[in-house]
Design brief:
There is one protein chain. By secondary structure, the protein is mainly alpha-helical. The chain has two helices and two strands; from the N terminus they run H-E-E-H.
């Protein structure tokens, strides 16, 4: 399984390099308080990365944390019943 992950990671890295090489037109990214020049390939990769991070945070906040809270609650509920049986 680790070999599979390595191959997938290398494929994504190669894909990112291809995007960077094929998109060399200069663009200006304007943010709230600053702006900077970069190539369109870097801009594309930064937006993809930002989308992944924001999506991961949304999944974490809406799924993982509530499920973790339910698991903690269920574990606490099970602990007294296990002590009483022993």
């Amino acid at each position: 399984m680790n070999m599979f992950r390595l191959v997938v990671a290398l494929l994504f890295l190669a894909y990112g390099l291809i995007i960077g090489v094929l998109n060399t037109q200069p663009i200006t990214l304007k943010l709230l308080f600053t702006e900077f020049q970069t190539s369109s390939g870097v801009g594309i990769m930064l937006s993809l990365l930002l989308g992944v991070v924001v999506g991961g945070l949304i999944v974490l906040a809406t799924l993982v944390w509530p499920l973790y809270a339910k698991l903690r609650k269920a574990t606490r509920a099970m602990a007294p019943s296990q002590d009483a049986g022993a």
